[in-house]
Fold these 3 entries.
Entry 1:
Amino acid sequence: MKRSSAMAGAAVMAVAGIATMATATTASAAPAGAAAAYNGACGRGYSVVNSAAITGKGTVYLTYNRTSGKNCVVTVRNTTGSPVYIFTYLGRTDGSGDAVFDEGEYRSYAGPVYLAAKGACVDWGGTIQNVSVSVTGSNCGKLTAGTVTHH
């Protein structure tokens, strides 16, 4: 179920609150073979510009469409199976506009969620079951890693 409202901000803040108890590192792609492959859920014209591993569970992908100027995020499980809680979100780092998110009990992925953010820094991340990752201040109009927090 997709949502875009003030509730999204509360959900992002909840994830960010958990992040304060975690260790921050630099963004990097998950090791080869360990990461869930990007599934193309964002659609035609979107290319992966960043990703963050959800340790042992899956990967969150940030994609971008140069034509539309929109970012898209999808959280993908390593393996498809019985439905589990999956959450994905995307928002502007400067807080302008509402963050967008999708959450629910899914077999393979949450999202896609879309946000027009050409030239703006974005915050994004996801959760699978009880493991989360969030990335803040990334992809500010260029391929910028941002800060990854695992929790």
Entry 2:
Amino acid sequence: MYLIGQLAKRCEVSSDTLRFYEKNGLLVPSGRSDSGYRLYSEDDLSRIRFILRAKAVGLSLEEIRELLDIQLEACQHSCAEVKAITQAKLDAVDSKIAELKRIRRALKKVNDACCGHADDNASHCSILGALGEEDSVDAVRSASGCCRGHSHS
């Protein structure tokens, strides 16, 4: 059996992290010592390692909780249930990547439209102009030149 500090050290996390997992229902101490200290077993060590690996692939605490619940009664669940959780996360990641690519394209376009000259004051800056437009998305799309007609560097 491990005390919380010993388990934390074995898992390379803080004791506060283990308390957080306990508070959020991901970990339950296997017992208490006579003096009331939390005690953890090898199974708890495995559980923490599972949680850490699941976090490393981007799963949320709720998704991890679902997987842990399935793992506890694995014979009563299917691989399809497990895969549905990871597929939903994968779909969310793909959606986020697409959104970030869209943001990057728009930001690059508005950034490229600005000359960036240090000797020009910002009153003619195309970035500020594009972002100040009521429909800044269209302004970003049409941003083509900057700062008193300077060419791009």
Entry 3:
Amino acid sequence: MGLFRRLFGDGAPDGFTGSLEQDETVIAHAAVTGGGHLVVTSLGLWVPGESPRRIGWHLVSKAKWEGALRLVEAAEASAEGPVVLLEDLPAHRFALDDPQRVMRAISQRVEGSIRHRERVESPGVWILQRKIPGRDGVVWQARGDAGVDLAAVREAVAPFASKLAG
């Protein structure tokens, strides 16, 4: 652990039980109504639960304020060549007493992870090139809009993936 952390702590809120990586920096945090904290770090968003867990910025599909934070996490479902196909998991809602700083930090980190984006209008697929926090390089991802199944995403991405593969 670095000297700064030993002297001043890691910046996480009191009661946070997650295990931050050595080079992980806390950017913002907010108490969640009902217990726990959302903790924004350089590597991802820590969400509360029995044991807090971190969602890497490259796997945050949506984060929107709707009277509470509505967070949609993506799971890596399969691949089409060099493109990882994502499926959205069910949304989580987190009621926050003071969302301003956390919402701004989340938005900056999610947008900052995106290096390139393009849209396949029919059937409704986003193709993204994203930086994975804490690693060198980028990853190509594709995710369909709500209601677009994985087979349709694969079909829409196939021409793009074959161009990437060379």
